[in-house]
Design a protein that fits this description.
single chain; transmembrane helix; membrane
């Protein structure tokens, strides 16, 4: 349970203004089936973050034990600084849209998460904490907390949240997690 709260907070805050949140806004504008979009986000996130958490747990086995806190701490800080860089709105593949809201969301969301800040954060969190289940649960819930409101009230909500505040808050959270990873050896 120790991994759940940092995982949830890290992803929920980092996701604000992220390209996958913009993708959710795009999908909500394209499809009326909000529940299918949300289910697609859930399935894609579970698959993507499950694989990412497994990778993080596997990688930490091959790194010398004394290096782990420093690598994890530096990685958290790097992701924190990365969060300050706004995402570009990538071109979405219109070919998958013909398969409907659920399939299109699963495919596009899974692809958009590859190499994304929240995926990298999931790898780092899984390397930091011993509980894959709680990391995956936390990052998935964080993703859902950030995207479900967008699916339902996207354009209105995006106008109300100051993205700079969200980015700086996420940066601060990742930097604190990085420092704690280094000093709590």
């Amino acid at each position: 349970m120790e991994a759940f709260i940092p995982s949830t907070l890290a992803v929920a805050i980092a996701e604000i203004g992220d390209k996958t949140q913009l993708l959710t806004l795009f999908l909500a504008a394209r499809f009326a089936q909000r529940n299918a979009i949300i289910l697609g986000i859930l399935v894609a996130t579970l698959l993507n973050h499950g694989l990412s958490a497994w990778l993080g747990a596997w990688l930490v086995q091959w790194i010398p034990e004394q290096w782990v806190p420093w690598i994890i701490g530096a990685s958290f800080i790097a992701v924190g600084l990365w969060v300050l860089i706004p995402d570009k709105d990538d071109e979405e593949d219109g070919a998958v849209l013909k398969y409907g809201a659920f399939i299109a969301t699963c495919i596009l969301f899974f692809i958009a998460e590859i190499g994304d800040k929240t995926q990298i954060a999931t790898v780092i969190l899984a390397a930091r904490y011993d509980s894959l289940f709680w990391v995956i649960a936390g990052t998935t819930i964080g993703m859902m907390l950030a995207n479900v409101p967008i699916a339902y009230a996207g354009s209105w909500l995006m106008q109300k949240i100051p993205l700079n505040l969200a980015r700086w808050s996420a940066c601060g959270l990742f930097v604190v997690l990085g420092i704690l990873s280094i000093i709590v050896i």
